[in-house]
Amino acid sequence: MIDYTVTGSIVTHNNIDTIETTLRTLKEYVRDVPFRLYIIDNHSKDGTPALAAEAAPWAEHLPLTRNIGFGAGHNLVLEKLDSKYHCIINPDIVLDSDAVTAMARYMDAHEDVTMLSPRIVFPETGGDQILGKRSPTLRYLAASRLRGGPRAKKVLREYAMLDEDPELPFEIENATGCFMFIRTETLQKIGGFDERYFLYFEDCDLTRELGRHGKTLYYPQAVVQHVWNRESKKNIYLALVQLHSMLKYFHKWRRS
User: At 93, is the secondary structure helix, strand, or coil?
Assistant: First the structure.
């Protein structure tokens, strides 16, 4: 048993279909490290807060009266954290092993690492989710959205760094916000997420900020399942939010 605490935060917004499984598997599989969870609800209207409170009375619940966004929601608990490491967790993540302890032990042995991104797989098949690991560019984002044709597949392969050995850790520039394992001291030092992003691009922005303080790695020995719906492809409002965040991101990092 590890003798320090790992914390985690989940920001919910109308996630009644997935949150119970997320909470159940966190409780079941995070065994070898003391773990404290915060659940911040962004004014859900589908009963998510009540379900989450019933499923996880062991967590601290922070229901909000308005939707303040993904990054701002996670930042609400930043000053509360007294842990060595902190997990950013989506409400559609499923565990089937103690990935949290595995990442804590790796970070203990590699003090130059400030963040780990685990292997993300589909629950149904166990196949890898092809996610960007290089800093996003318009070329990469177009390939990610289209995902068809040999040219787009080649660019997507480059964006997702698929030519790296998938069984070994390697440095990345962009980690998905569905699950991030971060050195708490560094997260607090940089002030958490940039709250100018309401939703989307806050994860790649955070990866770049953390990368100024140490290595950000893909760590395939820790595996989590992600119920990936790609909502921005189905919802015009979310597509516009994503576009707005993209413009903010490129403006912020235009000289980097």
Answer: strand
